Amino acid sequence: MSKTAFIPSIPGTSEDDFDVSATAKMAGYRRFYGVLKVVRTTDGRVLFPFDGAPEFGPHSTRLEAIAAAQVYGEHIVASDLARPEL
Hints:
By secondary structure, this protein is an alpha+beta fold. The protein contains one helix and four strands; from the N terminus they run E-E-E-E-H. Strand 1 (18-26) and strand 2 (32-40) form a beta hairpin. The protein starts with 17 loop residues before the first strand and ends with a helix.
């Protein structure tokens, strides 16, 4: 018998209900890609990355790559607050 439990989707009500993690990875000489993870903490749902998610790069500096990922993370949070993915 499976021990999985149903976890209901609980939409976030503010930006504090999301965990946004933006970092960068290096791929070759001076080629940096942003790495992003967005989790809605109210129900633990991972909103990003998903299958077919875009890549953030290549950028010439690590800071540019992180900034690109962070901006996209803020966009995902704002979009989920407006229309929650349930």
